[in-house]
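Annex B, item 7. Sequence and structure tokens for protein A, then protein B.
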Amino acid sequence: MRIRLLPIDSDLQQTFHSPAAFEQQYACTYDDVVTIMDNVITQLQVLYAQAPRESRWGGYFAVDEDTRKVVGTCAFTDQPTNDGEIEIAYFTFPPYEGQGYATAMAVALVDIARRSPQVATILAHTLPEPNASTRILTKLGMTLRGEAVDPQAGPVWRWECGA
């Protein structure tokens, strides 16, 4: 499976509400997930207003290169810290779950982070129980480092790997 990441930047936001223009510019479609994508764009606009960052440290939509459909979203939760830490997050849209897209998105984010001299440690957080995300992070070579508290999710497991 091959995915392509589309940065959720101002260009994408401007073409999003015109499916024909979006398809022409990005060579993909999003018919069955338009509402989810609209919610992601809205959330990122709020986040970017509160914490501006370079676009590479923002959010992306994932496109399946074979079907040319938007299948999920992934992001860096913020830019790298002064200590070189960066956190990844990913979400497969419901119609596409269980097909390996989350793994592909996580791999793509880790690759972006590893290409940056600003990044020393890549982080992820999961619910504090074995699940699909913990299997993905284990496949990526991440190590469970313990528990943390997320302001929205509550107790979580903290995963890490070196860049």
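Protein B:
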Amino acid sequence: MTRLAEIPVIVVHDQAAQGCLPGALGGPATSMVLALLNEIATKLDQLAENGQESSIDLRWLIGLPQDFRLLRETLGEGEVAATITTIGSTRVQETAIPCVWWITHYDSDGGRLGEFVEITEAPEILRSSRQSIQAGLADLQVRCAELDSSDPFSSNLSTAGSPS
């Protein structure tokens, strides 16, 4: 039998990962960050090809602060950000990569509950439900009616705009 140490090993440079190397961000990327960036690239390709949206849970990466920071810096920040406030809050930040969003959920005390990267045109948390669209339309109609009835220059007044 051959001993394990005698088996020849050849290291092949992964050219697919080369595009993800963040050299300007402070050194070589870890294999974990490269794996995540390649996963994001694959999911972004799926979104482009067939509209398949996806999400990557990053809560486990919080335990690796250098990898977490490197991934965040590599993805960068885009132009769009939103904060949703309910019992806790959620911060939605577009990354510098279109359709890649960094989502952070916080509890009511500001403690971080979760970190996700969503690959989508618009994150689900920012989308209105069909039920809320109808409720919003009804509310807007009520507001318009209130404005219309309180406006002395309203078109509802029969003498509006005519000389007396």
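Comment on protein B: The longest strand covers residues 112-119.
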